[in-house]
UniProtKB/TrEMBL annotation:
Key word Membrane present: no
GO MF entries: carbon-sulfur lyase activity; metal ion binding
Name of the molecule in the record: GFA family protein
Alphabetically ordered keywords of this record: Lyase, Metal-binding, Zinc
The CENP-V/GFA domain, residue ranges: 5-112
Nucleus in keyword set: no
Gene3D superfamilies: glutathione-dependent formaldehyde- activating enzyme (gfa)
Family per similarity comment: Belongs to the Gfa family.
């Protein structure tokens, strides 16, 4: 079942409303996505005509290959999307960065690209130390700082 979802970049200069959002997202392990996003790029494919953007003046588009562009927020540097620009069956598909969405609790990983380029950084062992939001804030955030927990890290 597809749905309508909202989201924004880290500084909120760019925001969106997306219709017909699938319940699954994809992960790309290609070298370019790793460099662009800092690791694996998790993207949610949305037809461009189902995407309403706000803050267009803050979007920097970069043609990164013969078939696609990537976009970032020019203010905060958040990766925004990977969009297919070459003619074909997926032309205009915008893969929005999963981290932009306000709520992903009902979404699951459905597929991966470039799995032969996947690194061990994406294999999280079960015996690792895990910190909750409160524990993380107690470690790093100043006690007198006012902040919106979860959004200002």
């Amino acid at each position: 079942m597809s749905q309508t979802k909202t989201g924004h970049c880290m500084c909120s200069c760019v925001s969106f409303v997306a219709r017909n959002v699938p319940e699954t997202f994809g992960a790309c392990h290609c070298d370019m996505c790793k460099r662009w996003s800092g690791n694996v790029f998790n993207g949610v494919p949305v037809p461009s005509e189902d995407l309403q953007l706000s803050g267009e003046g803050h979007i920097k588009r970069i043609q990164t290959s013969d078939w696609a562009e990537r976009a970032i927020c020019a203010e905060c540097g958040s990766p925004l999307w990977y969009r297919i620009t070459a003619e074909g069956p997926t032309t205009g598909t915008t893969n929005l960065a999963l981290g932009l969405f306000d709520d992903t609790s009902d979404m699951t990983l459905g597929y991966e690209f470039y799995v032969d380029r996947k690194t061990s950084a994406n294999d999280l062992p079960k015996d690792r130390k895990q910190f909750t939001e409160a524990e993380t804030l107690a470690l790093f955030a100043p006690e007198d700082a006012s902040h919106d927990q979860g959004d200002k890290q």
